[in-house]
TrEMBL record:
Phylogenetic classification of the source organism: Bacteria, Pseudomonadati, Pseudomonadota, Gammaproteobacteria, Moraxellales
Highest taxon in the source lineage: Bacteria
Protein name from the UniProt record: Uncharacterized protein
UniProt source species: Acinetobacter gerneri DSM 14967 = CIP 107464 = MTCC 9824
InterPro entries named in the record: Polyketide_cyclase/dehydratase, START-like_dom_sf
SUPFAM superfamilies: Bet v1-like (SSF55961)
Length: 143
């Protein structure tokens, strides 16, 4: 299984960083110009971007990528999977949060990916690693 991992320290408490990264709209800032919209709310009215929620990503009216939140442990971990994508066999995203000090949080983002065409996986993961690294640097400056 091909995978990537990005680690980034944020100068903010774990609760604030988790709150930021648990909202689908945050990824509009992190991964601009890619647009992210929630298309299905979670069952929890207090956390519409939580467990079971679905987001679509893309550009303008074309948003072919769908991800569903499959695990949400507040201030600890978020997991999501790609759904309804005929080109990808397996995609799992895991975002882990670790408090290093009262105002310092380590975020570890791991993505496992297996495309239907094997050589494509490494290309996609390289692009994702670059996008996440740049996006997290942008977000870290905003907190």
């Amino acid at each position: 299984m091909n995978s990537i991992q990005v680690k980034k320290e944020f100068n903010a408490p774990v609760e604030q960083v988790f709150d930021l990264l648990s909202k689908h709209a945050t990824y509009n800032i992190a991964f601009a110009p890619i647009q992210v919209v929630r298309v299905k709310d979670s069952a929890d009215p207090e956390r519409p971007d939580g467990l079971g929620s679905i987001r679509r990503m893309g550009f303008g009216p074309v948003k072919p990528i769908q991800e569903q939140i499959t695990l949400l442990e507040p201030n600890q971990r978020i997991e999501y999977k790609l759904i309804k994508n005929p080109l990808i066999k397996h995609h799992l995203g895991v975002i882990e949060f670790q408090s290093l000090a009262p105002n310092k949080t380590l975020v570890t983002y791991t993505i496992e990916l297996q495309a239907r065409a094997p050589f494509i996986s490494k290309i996609i993961l390289a692009q994702l690693k670059l996008a996440i690294t740049l996006g997290f640097s942008k977000l870290a400056k905003s907190v």
